[in-house]
Each structure stands twice: as C-alpha cells, then as structure tokens.
Design a protein that fits this description.
Helix content is 44%, strand content 18%. The chain is α/β, with parallel strands linked by helices. The chain has a domain at 364-511: OmpA-like domain (60s Ribosomal Protein L30, Chain: A, 2-Layer Sandwich), CATH 3.30.1330.60. The strands form 4 sheets. It has a 6-stranded mixed β-sheet, with helices on one face. Strands 2-1-3-10-4 form a 5-stranded mixed β-sheet. A hairpin with a 4-residue loop joins β12 and β13 (396-401). The longest helix is centred in the middle third of the chain and has 35 residues, at 263-297. The chain starts with a helix and ends with a strand.
Length: 512
Amino acid sequence: MYKKIFVLLGILFLITGTYLRSGNDPQEPRKLRILSVYPRKLAVERVGLEKFANDLKKIANTQYDIEVYYNGEGEYKNIKPDDVFDEVSNGKVEMGFGTSPYWKGKEIPGNMFMCAVPFGMSAKDMYAWLYRGGGLELWREMYEPYGVIPFSIGDTVGAMGGWFKKEIKNIKDFRGMKIRTLAFDAKIYDRLGAEVHKEFSAFETLPAYDKGAIDAFILLGPYSDKKNNFHKGPKYYYYPGWQEPCGVISLIINKKTWDNLEDDVKKKIEIVCSNTYHYIYNLFDSMNSRDLQELKKEGVQIKEFPPEVLDKFRSLSTILLEEEANKSQLSAKIYRSFKKFKKENVDTEWRKILDKAVHYSDTTTQKLTSGLTAKKFIDGLAGSKVATAAAKGNNSVVITFSGAASFGSWKSKPTPALVSEIKSIVKMINDYSISIKWIKVEGHASTLGEDCSNWKISKNRANTVAKLLTDNGIDESLIKTIAYGEDYPLIYPDNTEGKRRINRRVELVIEY
C-alpha cells in the first residue's frame, strides 16, 4: 500500500517539475523589449539607450531580459517611428524610446510641451519642472487614456537656429523661403510666409538642399548637424535655437507591463531613467561644445538672428502656444504650470545673479585696460535708423533717439527699431564687459511744464526707454530718468531762423 503511494507521489513530482521547466517556470526571464524611434547609427541616442538597458540589467530582478530594438532592424523593422507609441499602447512591445513629437504628437493636445517649447526652458530647468514642478504628473495624466506611462530619460540640450543659404537681415527674408523643419517652429515659419517642408528626413536634407528643393533647414545642435554634414551645404549657421532651447527624450512603458512589475523593479527603472537622463544630457552638451569649434574651423559663419527677427519669433510663438494650449482643458493646465514654473524659478533676479558668476568674462580686465573708447559705441550704432551717438569725454557716450522713428507721432510706445537698438546697446555693454557708473535717460521737450503735452510725452518716452533697458538686463539702480524743457528755434543751413522747433527726443548718457 505504502509502495503505491510513494510511486504516485514520484509521478506527481515528475509531472510538476516538467510543467515548471516548460515556459511557465517562474525563474525563466520575462522580456522587456525597448523599441527606439532612432536608427542605430545615431551614436548618442544609441549609447544612452544601451547604457539604460545595461544598467537596468545589472540592478533589476534577474527574471527580466531587456532587449533593445532600433528603427529599421529586427522583427520591428517595418514599424515607423510615428507608430512606436501605438505599439507600446497596444502592448505589442513593452517600452518605447524617443521624443513626445513621435508619441502621437498630432493627436494629443499639449503633447509638444513635454519636449521643447519656443523660448521655453533649458534642459536642466525642464527637468526641474517635470520632477519638482508637477510636469511629470501632468504628462502621465495626458497619456493615461492610451495606457502609457512616460519618463524623461535624456535631453538633446537644445538646438541651433538652423542653416540658411542667405544672410538673414530682417523678418521679410523668410517670405517665400523653402525651409525644412519638423518641430513647432514650422507653424511660425508658415505664418511668416515661408514654404515649409516636412517630408525630408535628416539624412535626406542635404541632398534636397543640393538639388535646390530647400533653401534652409533645421535639425539640432552642432554635434548632430556636423554628423549629417550640414556644414557642406549653407554657409550661415544661426543662433539662438529659439524654437528648441531643450529637447526632452522620453521612455514610455505599457501601463499593464508597468502594473505587473514588482515595486522594487519600478523604483530601479525610475532611478536608472534619472541617471541616464544626465548621462545623455552631458554627452550632447560636450559634443556640441566640441563640434561648434570644429565647424568654425571649417569656415562656417556663426550668425545671430537680428533682434527684430527674434522679437517676431517670440510674438508669434506666444500667439501659437496659446492656440495650442486652448485645444483642451488639460493642455491649458499644462501650459499654465509651465509658465508659472518658468516665471518663479527661471526668470528671476536670483538666476541673473547666478549667471553672472558663471558667464562673467575672464578677459574683463584686459578689455577695460586696453582702452575702451566712446568710438566703439558710435561705430556700433552706425547705420541705425533711430539713434545717433557722440562722444562726451573719454568715459561717456551720448546716444540720441529721434522721436518719430523711435516712437511714432505723438506716442510713447517703442517701435520695433527702437527695441532692436536698445538690445544692441545692452549687447555692446555686455560684449565689451563695461563697468557702468550710471545711465541717465533724458526726455527732451520744446517747453517745460506739467500742462505741456510735449513735455509729458518726452517724460513718458524716457520712462519707456528706461524700462527697455531694465527688461534687457541693465540694473535698475544704475538708471536715472529725467525730463527737460527746451525752447529754441530751428536754424536753417543759411543761418536764418525758422519757426520754433517741436522736439520730443530721448537721450541716453552712459558713463563708465
């Protein structure tokens, strides 16, 4: 009797062992597949993704086998980059690697805010908003209906403004321009009358330029652009990359997969994502610094967009971002959160103080002792439509803004030309590392008195110029504003006297 029982137990153990060794052995590794929107040959993206996979393998539960697939390879070679989000959402692959414009970017209102916003935040500030300012929670709320969990896993550290066949002198230069760009700035260029092309991949862009299909194109920063040989096309390389001051790379995970992970594995994924983010960020930053210098050595002309152009980019960006935000209640909520964080943490006096410590020129003493003269200011303003400059001693300059060209008739609102000139003046002060004693902003009128409209206009104009200076970084404590009344005739070339002159000019007296 006992012998039969032992035989039956032996058979039972044999069957159970066979069953466990078949595909249901709990020790057999479960697959976590990561599908990248990028091809293998994009080095930084590849190295970053493989670091994430390898680091996770080392610290995660041994039950998981992590496999990486690149665009155009393996069993997923026919999956287009724009379809990776759906593959993750449907559970056909556990994870995706890319940026939010690939993640159903045309269908999810507010999705663009999770990668880059024109005139937005830097990579480090974007990371702070996501993990300290509530951005990540809003991102996950956005993707919740699709069964997808997002993480930030890297950043391209922003972009340059693009490659252009011709020099950009004013906003009209974009009218009729054939420009290749894939980001949100396509909407801005379209509003400016450009012919926007989105059909060319990064690898097709230079051949398209050589054939005359496009006149300009935008990709990323110096590292990516040099790798694509863009410097062998247009000779003008513009900055700043207003359209993409950062570029968040994201990892998306199927929600059912995420929910079935052990808590310790979830925490390890979060930790490795954070570590990989800074790894990719630093790689892009160092590569861009190196390759910008290499491009300059190869004869590329690095140019800054004129202030008038940047002002128009900013105004159009604000309008279009508001339109994007108003597409849904959630996207409006995201945009409000984004702007609030930027105002309270980035556009602050503290940040300006910190930036001084980092960016103050180490050649300041040399520049000042080498003989800074008023002539540099005067030469810098040559050709201005609104300003004239003259020397006043060796350490001061007087800059005069004409009334109509700077403000229009009987107005105190600055013209774009005046805004541009103020920015140029501040830039010269920064470029020359000038130590300013004070700036006196003088409003001049034909007569003096509270009841005189000319005097009131001149006073308001002086205040307007003072505000433009502070808005562009001049310390308010250095500025003194005053209005003068003058009463003198207009003298003709033949020395005959004409009628009394109505004068509403503004002068800056800069002493350093």
